[in-house]
Amino acid sequence: MNTHFSTHPVAHRGSTAALIACASISALLALALPAQARDRQGTATGPQGNTATRDVSRQQGDVSSSTTGPRGNTASRSVDRTAGATTATATGSRGKTVSRNTTRTSEGSQTTVTGLNGQSGSATITR
What is the domain extent for residue 71? Predict the structure, then answer.
């Protein structure tokens, strides 16, 4: 078997130019098109053969996910983001929910966390 690889710079000039052109076009298309939702699913199997699945969806900064354990119990989490606020909610497999709400302004931010029993606490940050 006789193989020959050229290391001469002129032999690679055309392929390098084509590669640069393809990369440039791909980058421009990525910037020009709106962000698409990204969905993922994963499954984990433990040593006893039990499985858990996780579904995640992301779209423009917002995230929602759910995890189902081996006994069918499901927990979920969602985060909604805007320029001035973030709201995050998590619900456990027994239906208990916790949340965090943050608002942002040019003067600072305020965050309120609400726990499982409806009790809440707040923090204010001033710039």
Answer: 52-126
